[in-house]
Design brief:
The protein is α+β, with helices and mostly antiparallel strands. It folds into 2 domains: about 110 residues, Probable inorganic polyphosphate/atp-NAD kinase, domain 1 (Rossmann fold, 3-Layer(aba) Sandwich); about 130 residues, Sandwich (Tumour Suppressor Smad4). It is built from 5 helices and 17 strands. The strands form 3 sheets. It has a 6-stranded antiparallel β-sheet with strand order 6-5-16-13-8-9, with no helix packed on it. A 6-stranded antiparallel β-sheet has the order 12-11-10-7-14-15, with no helix packed on it.
Length: about 250
């Protein structure tokens, strides 16, 4: 892999890395590249995956951000050789379709999660249906999220949701600060599930919906489902695979 398109976040560390790497290996347009190398953190990686959806180019991330769960270690040396030995991981996003209180329709994709969040001091009241069948009549909470396996260690884990193996055909549905019913800890659903989350008292208790970084405010309901016809490919160093990190994360104490 010698035709590389480098992209970088706006941080100083990422921009310095971009200058050093392009001086050493050159710069190729994304349309002509064999691989896209993203320099930044996990947020920038998500942005890059969305930007590259129209091009079937694998993405290799190098951490110039903070957490870097989706990134590899930064190293300027022997990059083509490193790329040649990487392991590929295919990830599939969720598709979010939102209807607003004003009747507007918006759609977006999420490689990490779709989250619904209250907008004011009042708790949200939500109704949850799966495959057309009502499963939870009223959830009083700060919100709820639907996470992919790749995103299960992000916001989902912070909300005490389960970590999913990268190859699992599952969606984690996890409440955020549930007030009633207190004992509901969420659900694991097959990736074929069609999830609808309705906002009760939508005007009095406004709720926003977020797919990765795309936010829609004042929603009436949201439909969430896997988008199996769309995918992105992440590349990882052999000793730093996403599968290994997901397993390792479950044994941290």
């Amino acid at each position: 892999m010698n035709r590389i398109a480098f992209v970088a976040s706006e941080t100083e560390a990422a921009q310095c890395a971009l200058s050093a790497l392009t001086a050493k290996y050159g710069q190729c347009s994304a349309s002509e590249a064999e691989v896209v190398v993203a320099l930044g953190g996990d947020g920038f990686m998500l942005q890059t995956l969305h930007d590259q959806l129209s091009l079937p180019r694998p993405v290799y991330g190098m951490n110039r951000g903070t957490v870097g769960f989706l990134m590899n270690a930064y190293d300027e040396d022997n990059l083509p050789a490193r790329l040649a030995t990487t392991q590929a991981t295919r990830i599939t996003p969720l598709k979010m379709r939102v209807r607003g209180v004003d009747g507007r329709i918006e759609q977006a994709l999420a490689f990490n999660e779709v989250s619904l969040l209250r907008e004011t001091r009042q708790a949200a009241k939500l109704r949850i249906s799966v495959d057309g069948k009502e499963r939870l009549t009223e959830l009083v909470c700060d919100g709820v999220l639907a996470a992919t396996p790749a995103g299960s260690t992000a916001y989902n884990l912070s909300a005490h949701g389960p970590i999913l193996p990268i190859g699992a055909e599952l969606i984690a549905l996890t409440p955020i600060s549930a007030f009633r019913p207190r004992r509901w800890r969420g659900a694991l659903l097959p990736s074929s599930a069609q999830i609808r989350i309705e906002v009760l008292e939508a005007v009095k208790r406004p709720v926003s919906a977020v797919a990765d970084f795309h936010e829609t405010r004042d929603i009436r309901h949201v439909d969430v489902a896997a988008a199996p016809d769309m995918s992105a490919t992440l590349l990882f160093d052999p000793d730093h695979s996403l599968d290994e990190r997901l397993i390792k994360e479950q044994f941290l104490v």
